[in-house]
């Protein structure tokens, strides 16, 4: 067995052990337990691990039989509800990102909270909500600037997030409209384009690609914006600040006033906002 295969196998077994550690051994595994103890992204990672383990040849290495039993229960439970493809897509594009991003107000550069813009439908199962939690649907604003800007108007919020994220928000919003309208392409391959169908975005991350290689959450540095986007950004933030943001090409161009916040600090700011 080569090192890569052994590493994937070890990671898969570790994921399976987490099921027992979090859900216990007494209760039968069901969707309520999985929802209670794992995020959608974690469930996607867990489903990948379970599928890998079940496809692994048992004769090549001694693996406890209970690991296969748990893996089979995970696969059966997730596939029975019809959202396995969404979970696999979430494992690639739904990773947590808030503690890795600079929580600095877009307008005044004070401590801020990343605030969601487009809300998911109220009756939507959590397995389909993870795209709404991606950074392309958020803007970093402090409580003070929310009161100053026209942020509370729905149209103004859309203008701001569209101006900040440019082509990436536009691609996400096309997915949102198609999803809520029941118009998603039937041939959408989520394993290649986990975020949204290929035709909803461009060929690169900056142009709004939803491909696997562009699915890792990133800041808005270097995203493609039109003149209309820039005008909207200037209307909210002032021309000088808008130009400063527009010129950012990658994180090496940015000299933050703040450093990335730890989990406790992020939660404390959120409680005050």
Give your account of this protein's structure:
- With about 270 residues, this protein is an all-alpha fold.
- Helices cover about 50% and strands about 5% of the residues.
- It is built from ten helices and two strands.
- The protein has helices spanning about 5-25, 30-35, 40-55, 65-80, 85-95, 145-150, 155-180, 225-235, 240-245, 265-270, and strands at about 115, 140.
- Strands 1-2 form a two-stranded antiparallel sheet.
- Helix 3 crosses helix 4 (about 65-80).
- The longest helix has 27 residues, at about 155-180.
- The radius of gyration is 21 Å and the shape is elongated.
- The chain starts with a helix and ends with a helix.
- The model is unreliable at about 250-273 (pLDDT under 50).
> Which term fits the overall shape?
elongated
What about the largest sheet?
A: 2 strands, antiparallel
Number of helices: 10
Low-confidence stretches: 251-273
Strand adjacency order, main sheet: 1-2
Strand element count: 2
Approximately what portion of the residues adopt beta-strand conformation? Answer: under 5%
**Structural class per helix/strand content?**
mainly alpha
- End-to-end distance, in Å? 52 Å
